[in-house]
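User: structure tokens for this one?
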Amino acid sequence: MKRKIKFILTVGFAIVLLLSACTAQPQAHFDSIDTLIAEGIIAPFDPDQLQPLDFNLVKVERGDIVSNLDLGVSIEFPRTYHLHFEVETISGHNSSMTQTAWDYGRFSGLFVGPNAVVTEGDLIAELTFGVPETIAIARRALELERNQFENSFALERQNRRQEIADLRVELEIAPEGEWEITALRLERAELAYRQFTNNAENRREQFDDRLERINAPIETERLYAPVSGVVSRTTQHFGPGYFRDLIPVTGGGMGNLGRSPASIIDMEYKHFILEAPLYVLRYGEIIPVFRQGGEAFFYAQIATDPLTENIVREGVHSARLIPLEGEFERFMEEVAEELGDNFNPENPYGLLTLRTRITIVRGNNVVYLDRRAIMEDNQRHFVLVYEDGAVGRRYISTGPNAFADSIAVTQILAGLTPGQWVVIP
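Assistant:
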């Protein structure tokens, strides 16, 4: 409310009285004023230009003190998969692979780049090996041994089959007295044949196992995406044609990531984290979460007790938010509509900045005043009270957070009553 108070100042009369106390000669008085004006000590004025003195008044109220606190909400993806080749399993700083594999391993390709969107099962990287001479000799020797076995097997199998065929003919023409003995001989020959073929299959499996052991150090290894997500990192040390012994070991807290060609973030498993002063976080409260720069929002519940979480910094705690059922899905549909062509469905969180607004009740049914009206004198708070056309100083007692930037009003504990008018200086 604005009130106008007009002070009529008869400046000439005041000056006359002042100077008349010093001299009884009026002409000298007026000469002295002219002299002061001419010398620039005082400025001339026109009484017609005098205006009423204006100032703002505010009323002391009773009610609830509330404030809104805007806070950022971060999205974290705690599940990150660091991909490693199996032959590069490391115990401390020592590789578990053989020296032969170490010398001949060659990185043949990284098929994705940073921020690439991948689907579970996509090929990420491949490691191939050259064939050293020692392995080539062992493979040729095994191949010769297997060929000799197969040739011997084919000849022996033909002889056994012919023996069985002859016994079957003999059984058909055998006299009654010799038939039982001939049938027993045929049964024994067929059993021996089955054992012969089974032994041959076992021998072939042994050849396969021996060949696999020989080829193990040079077998191509491929890495596939274990989950659908986004590639968060590719190791710069991996490049086409790089030998394994050129890829350094990364020690310390990074967990040998120097040997991991890529890392993948599981975008489906996400946490919404709110950091705020402890008095703001109320376990179980449902709050709105907005997209900065848009109108879309969703409701989420504070799902962790901030007292059980780590303190982010002095006075600030963190709490996890869980969207209500179906809320986040609806929210993302609205975000897609708001962003239009700028929305990337494969990486929908790239342009997403979230905020929330929490309403804090700082006082119920209390006396309060616009904090702009409160002044300080020697560490004591006071206001200028306007009553019956006059302004007077009044010392007051204020509540907590009297000058918090986020609060427009201050609780008055003593010194004022609702309905009074106070000057805003």
